[in-house]
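Reopening this ticket.

The earlier resolution said the output was attached, but the attachment link was broken on my side. Pasting everything inline this time so it's all in one place.
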Amino acid sequence: MDRFLLMTCFKRTVETGSFSAAARDLGMGQPNVSRYVAALEDHLGTRLLQRTTRRLVLTPEGERYYADVSRILDAVAESESSLSDESEPTGLLRVACPTALAHAFLMPYVPAFLARYPGLSLDLQLSDRLVDLVEEGAELAIRIGHPTDSALRARRIGHYTRVYVAAIDYLERRGIPQTPEDLHNHDCILYSLLSTGNTWHFRDTVINVSGRFRVNSPQAIQEAVIAGLGIASGPRWLYEEGLESGRLRQVLCDYEAPPVPVQFLYVANRLLPKRAIVFMDFIAEAFSKVPGLNTGHDQH
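Inline output:
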């Protein structure tokens, strides 16, 4: 049996999350996809996917094999493309991106990107949790901050200033903090997905903050600070409207930390297909002209 067919069925099953979705994507019947993946497991003598009633889960062996298969199939596709008269990138590109960043900056450029590359399809996965590029099948991730995983490579596409803000009525009730240490006497609105937990970073210090409200959505933090629930920390562009309208006030301006990078991340040992490269180039060029992603002085 065609080994590449088996590998392709396995790869698309992992990336789409089910045999039926992979079958639709590949234009074949669901029983065939399931049978081909089972045949691949028999050939390898190991289980690649754990099948439950609700979803498919990669085994540790499956995770390693998926990374290898992705690299092999991408290399084959790139090789064929380089020999073809048709040099336009094709196929499905999966990109993970934080929700607020996507709505504020990425989505306005999606129509122009798809219009420029009619052979491409884009699966944009919006989530504020940390997406595993290998396990979840995304070729690229846009992330805020510095990567800590040595298996990933980064390409900088912007940076922004992190500010500390509160509603005017909150500051009238509780007073204006003059130093980061003053936050111990304030309610801080906590972002529960922040990698540093309850620790806020300032120019020369870090402070453990606390408050009565925490949430896993940047938009909800924006709403909470406008409602006067406390002091929030986040990208200036998230609070720009409130600051310009006068409903919010920036505090602790003299203690701002260095600008925060916005970066594309991808798996270091995987050959990037042309569709991923053209997307990175397109978005990097677009973001270079966005004031909100080029604030402050880049100190990285």
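Reporter confirms the inline version is readable. The first strand starts at residue 49 and ends at 51. The mean pLDDT is 88.
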